[in-house]
Every structure is written in C-alpha cells, then in structure tokens.
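[Discussion] Sanity-checking designs against the backbone

I'm trying to build intuition for which residues belong where. Below is a structure token string of 476 positions. I'd appreciate it if someone posts a full sequence so I can compare it with mine line by line.
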C-alpha cells in the first residue's frame, strides 16, 4: 500500500532505530539527532496514517498513574518488557492493571518513548489559584538532583535543593525523612508488639508502593505479614494536613501538598483512597524540568534549609533512600525499645548491591533474623518460604528497585553501562550524611518526640494508628 498526502504525493518519512527521531528525508551519512549510521534509518509513516501494533513492547494502560508511552517514539525493541521481566519478574501481557508503575522501563527505554506521567500542570494550577504550596523531599533526591545540572552522582545538594524549591514558590519546604522517622517509630513498635505477642511474623516493610502492589496483585495470602504502617510520604502528608495545619491555623482546603520523590510508583500510591494527604507527586526529573524552565541557577542558588517543625530528620531516616536503610534504621529503634540501650553495630554489608542479604541480631533473650532484598525478581524464594510458613526471618525489607530508592524510576537517567557505579555513588552520598548528622536515630529526633507528646501520644496505639496506619489492613 502506498500512502499519499493531500496533494497526491507519497508521504514518506524516516525514523532512527536508535534514538527514535523522525526526519522528513533520508540522509546519506547519519541520523541528525544521535548521529547513528544511515543504515539505522527505517521507513516511517505518521501515526494518523498507519496504526501501530506493538509486538515486543510492554503494554501501558492510559489509566496508568505513574508512567506513559509516546507511541511515536517507540521502536518496539522489547527493552521495556525485558526490563520488567529481569527486575520485577513480571510479564503481565494485556493485564495492564498489574503494572507496578515502578518506572524501571523508563530508565532503560533507549528512545525516551516511556516517560513519567507528569503532574506539574496540577501544581502550577494550584499556585495560580493562590494555594499555599507545601512540599516535602525524599532522601534519595538530595544525592541525584545535582546530576541534572552537571554535578557528579552522589553529590549531596540539600541546601541547593531547598533554596530552589523556595524560589519556585513553595511556602514551606519539609524533609520527608521526618516521615521516615515516624515510620520507624511505628514500625519498630509494631515489630516489638508482633514479637512479644505472638503476632504474624515475619513482618515485611510497607515503604515501597511497587512492592506492596505486587503483593496485593500476586500474593494476597502474605498481606498479613506486611506492616500496617503507611509509607513515609503517606505519614508526612497526613501529619501536614492535620497537625501542622492546626498548629499554623491553616485552612486545609487552601493548602496544596506536593511530594518530591525518586519514584514513579508514589504517584499511584498517593491516589489510593486510604493514603490521603498528598495532592501531587513530582519526580526528580519533573522537578528538574520545572527548574530549568524557570531558569533556576541550581549551582549558584541562594541556599536554604528546611522549615521549622519538620526539619531534617535523623541519619536513620536519610538511609531510607538506600537498600538496607529501612532495616538499619528500624533496628536502631527496635533495639532501643527492647533493651533501652543504643544499637551501635556496623551494618555496612546490608547496603551493598548484592540482591539478597541476611543479618542476625541478639536482642536481649531473642535472636532476631532479618533479610534485605532489592529487585522484586530476586525475592521469589524468600516470598515462597513466607507463603509456606517456612521463613526463618522476623523482619524482611523488600524494595522493588535495585539499590533502593536511589534507583527509582523517577531519578535522572544514566548510561546503562554506568548504572551500578551511579547507584553506588548515590548510596555513598546518603550513608556519608548518616555518619555526619548529629541525630542518628529516629527516637532521638526532637520533632518526633514533640509530635508524640502533643498529638500522637503512644506509638502503635489508637491516635497513631488512626493517622499513620492502614487500619483496615491490620490483622496482627
């Protein structure tokens, strides 16, 4: 079949198989965008003229809350499906509701066809309406945002980040490591309760929304094992809309909350009806795009610090951005709750890029066994043992993305050959911060102490459960 334009002339274009660029005429030398050899230029017709049927690409629903695909850029290479199989162990075919929205395919797509589903327009609309903009930034962002502005991976850019957010118009800028510290207080208290009261063990972490969705969709029989705690962002948004607004005498309807995250799956999580409090989620790449549009000079921006009441969290909260970080932070507080002594052991090995790591800890009369897993596809054996009632562990941390949140789908893209090195540098940046910050554990965070005294009262009990847990999922 020959396609003609309205003048009766054949409408032929060419697309580069490497970068996906569409050009009007074939050149003899190379692609004008990526300089690939002319042999990589294939015949191409506009999407309006030729319906596209993808044979190798993973299917993405229009209703996906985290990611989307630009069909015009897709070359149907199958890299996205390969990534999904390799990193999550999933091949969901046409059942697109089982997509975890984790965005790992966004990081590996060679043409940029797969991308983050943007929410910036919603934020700008709220700003134009005069809403009070409040944002909170996840730990992993401060060691990756600099990459968007020419800095090396792992460069710690906290004050530049906060200064930039202030320049964009946010009235309050908070640290989500406060929410991480809240999570640890609740999670460690929950683990203690399960251990002492013969509750469901092992207890598994609930911080990673892609992992939680995976369990709901594929292994509902293990849901009792997952902590009832909301994620740090879930807790942070809830506390801002309740405690903070009350303290500042702010009308909740006039407040617009934005979570800045390394994770595309957080967009899915915050739309769930049982996790209110966050109005929009922007990834690192979305934030960087906004900053560049507003001509923010990131390297020379007037530096700033987090606003009071929810200032920077503990070193343990900062570790939430790396594999093993939730475990180490939880053990610091769990050990203290059980023994009234500080946990001082060196847990460096659990932060390596080895996918499955184990650790055994003596806590008083108990010997507690923990496991750390990152990349869901590597969790199969551990999850099977839990289902069969044969798991030797008491606590299991599972993160969907390799390296933890430093490897999230909303992070700056990297050359795939350098992936491990980039993640190692980001991990090092956060671990170094943990070593240098004065408040080392969640239970020593003065803001955390204050909010329990004034509002939440007792961890893992009525008021705290109302605001910080998914009560309807609690069966422990």
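Best answer:
Here's mine. Compare freely.
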């Amino acid at each position: 079949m020959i396609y003609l334009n309205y003048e009766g002339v054949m409408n032929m274009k060419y697309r580069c198989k490497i970068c996906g660029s569409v050009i009007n005429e074939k050149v003899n030398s190379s692609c004008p965008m990526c300089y690939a050899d002319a042999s990589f230029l294939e015949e191409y017709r506009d999407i309006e003229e030729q319906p596209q049927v993808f044979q190798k690409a993973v299917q993405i629903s229009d209703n996906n809350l985290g990611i989307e695909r630009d069909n015009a850029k897709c070359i149907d290479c199958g890299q996205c499906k390969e990534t999904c199989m390799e990193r999550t162990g999933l091949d969901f075919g046409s059942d697109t509701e089982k997509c975890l929205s984790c965005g790992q395919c966004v990081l590996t797509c060679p043409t940029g066809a797969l991308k983050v589903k943007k929410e910036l327009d919603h934020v700008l609309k709220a700003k134009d309406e005069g809403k009070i903009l409040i944002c909170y930034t996840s730990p992993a962002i401060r060691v990756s945002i600099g990459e968007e502005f020419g800095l090396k991976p792992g460069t710690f850019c906290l004050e530049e980040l906060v200064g930039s957010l202030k320049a964009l118009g946010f009235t309050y800028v908070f640290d989500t490591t406060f929410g991480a510290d809240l999570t640890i207080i609740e999670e460690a208290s929950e683990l203690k309760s399960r251990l002492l009261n013969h509750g469901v063990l092992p207890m598994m972490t609930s911080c990673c929304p892609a992992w939680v969705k995976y369990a709901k969709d594929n292994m509902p029989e293990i849901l009792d094992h997952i902590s009832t705690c909301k994620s740090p962002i879930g807790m942070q948004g809830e506390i801002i809309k309740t405690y903070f607004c009350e303290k500042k005498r702010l009308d909740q309807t006039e407040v617009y909350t934005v979570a800045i995250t390394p994770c595309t799956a957080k967009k899915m999580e915050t739309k769930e009806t049982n996790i209110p409090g966050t109005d929009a989620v922007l990834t690192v790449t979305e934030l960087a795009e906004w900053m560049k549009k507003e001509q923010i000079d990131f390297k020379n921006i007037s530096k700033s610090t987090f606003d009071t009441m929810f200032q920077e969290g503990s070193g343990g909260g900062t570790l939430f951005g790396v594999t093993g970080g939730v475990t180490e932070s939880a053990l610091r507080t769990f050990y203290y709750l059980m023994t009234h002594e500080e946990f001082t052991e060196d847990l460096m090995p659990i932060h390596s890029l080895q996918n499955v790591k184990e650790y055994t800890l003596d806590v008083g009369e108990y010997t507690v066994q923990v496991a750390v897993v990152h990349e869901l596809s590597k969790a199969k054996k551990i999850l099977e043992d839990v289902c069969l009632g044969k798991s030797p562990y008491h606590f299991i941390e599972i993160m969907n993305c390799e390296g933890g949140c430093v490897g999230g789908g909303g992070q700056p893209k990297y050359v795939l050959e350098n992936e491990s090195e980039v993640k190692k540098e980001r991990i090092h940046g956060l671990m170094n911060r943990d070593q240098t910050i004065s408040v080392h554990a969640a239970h020593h965070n003065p803001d955390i102490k204050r909010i329990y005294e004034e509002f939440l009262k007792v961890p893992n009990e009525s008021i705290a459960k109302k605001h910080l847990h998914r009560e309807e999922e609690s069966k422990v």
